[in-house]
Design goal:
VC0802-like, Rossmann fold, 6-stranded parallel sheet, 4-stranded antiparallel sheet, alpha/beta, about 375 residues, 6-phosphogluconate dehydrogenase C-terminal fold
Length: about 375
């Protein structure tokens, strides 16, 4: 039995159904911080379970739902939203009395209506949505740091026992995230605006650009702001398809309001209303500046440097060594252009502004020409 904040361990056996990016990252965080006695993983593929064990995401795993779920105090549905229902219906009869079921899905009203109907008596469902992620997917990309300072929304119902609320709240804090309690309806309305809408707008921008038929020149010009603006379109298509279908009403409302705004901007430009257009741009700029940076987002911002280098063997290794010895972690690396016998440029990406600044100083001290992007 959990002893509250006096005990680091929040749950005994935790069953994570789905050992991909999110499930794997959660398992790693639970094990590293000793928030569970043991972490079990379920996946349809033994090879994925083997990789999850090797990566430290689970203690044990099985392709048998019964084996994974039995005697678990916490069952985590870490699969696309519309698969949660089928998965739970296949293992609900194996749930132990007192078990808590949660999920990592991006829409909550849909699951809040479906999941409780499948649960046996003396078990509980409490929805969760960690607002973090990566453009990568699968267990290979799993990382316990994914949770650090991420907003983690919890959506208890009025009938959710306080005991379960406190336990899950404490676990969320334990993995380094920031819990935020919302109703399922409020959650879906808000994330439709700040998460689902930006993704679909990015998809539309990419589709419009791709339809122009001038692939090479567009890709060249899109290497700057367009690439950054549309980065969220890299998300898992299966996951985002389910999000759109299960949060249909809120997303449609957000899209309609966006279309109205675009039409207003279109008319303003068409009629050359310069002062009004400037006002729209200024309002947007001011509001954007007010958005805080302290919380991790779905796709963490990348802070970039471009390093000018000579065409010599081992140059990338030397850059990595200079930064690695001072504990500067490179999140991304890309060779931009190299001219034989002359050199070229290498793009380095960092997750934090502080890491970029430190890298800039270190590389300049070694005589490299470096500039921010």
């Amino acid at each position: 039995m959990w002893a509250g904040a006096s005990s680091r361990q929040v749950f005994g056996k935790v069953a994570i159904l789905g050992t991909g990016l999110m499930g794997g990252s959660l398992g790693m965080a639970l094990r590293e911080r000793r928030l569970a006695r043991e972490v079990w993983g379920y996946n349809r593929h033994e090879s994925t379970l083997r990789e999850a064990r090797e990566k430290g995401a689970i203690d044990s795993g099985s392709c048998s739902l019964k084996e994974v779920v039995k005697e678990a105090e916490l069952v985590v549905l870490a699969v696309p939203v519309r698969f949660c229902q089928d998965l739970l219906s296949s293992c609900a009869s194996y749930l132990s009395p007192g078990a808590l079921v949660t999920d990592l899905g991006s829409t909550k009203k849909y699951l809040t209506e479906k999941i409780p109907l499948l649960l046996p008596a003396n078990t509980c469902y409490l929805g969760g949505h960690p607002m973090t992620g990566s453009e990568e997917s699968g267990i290979k990309a799993a990382d316990p740091a994914l949770w650090e300072n991420a907003i983690y929304v919890l959506t208890p119902s009025s009938s959710t026992p306080e005991f379960y609320r406190k336990r899950l709240h404490y676990l969320v804090e334990g993995i380094g995230a920031q819990p935020l309690v919302l109703s399922p309806e409020e959650h879906d309305r808000l994330v439709a605006l700040v998460s689902h809408l930006p993704h679909l707008v990015a998809v539309a921008l990419v589709k419009v650009a791709a339809a122009q038929g001038e692939d090479e020149i567009i890709r060249t010009l899109a290497a700057g702001g367009f690439r950054d603006t549309t980065r969220v379109a890299l998300g898992n298509p299966e996951v985002w398809r389910d999000i759109c279908i299960t949060n249909r009403e809120a997303i449609i409302n957000s899209l309609k309001r966006t279309i109205e705004m675009l039409e207003e901007i279109t008319h303003t430009i068409s009629e050359s209303r310069e002062d009004y257009l400037k006002g729209i741009l200024e309002e947007a700029s001011q509001y954007r500046r007010s958005i805080p940076y302290q919380f991790r987002s779905y796709l963490p911002e990348i802070f970039e440097l471009v390093v000018l280098v000579k065409d010599t063997p081992g140059v990338i290794g030397r850059l990595a060594t200079i930064l690695g010895e001072k504990e500067v972690n490179i999140a991304e690396i890309e060779i931009l252009h190299v001219r034989e016998e002359e050199g070229g440029s290498i793009r380095l990406g960092f997750r934090e502004e502080g890491q970029r600044s430190k890298a800039l100083t270190l590389l300049e001290m070694q005589g490299y020409r470096v500039h921010r992007r």
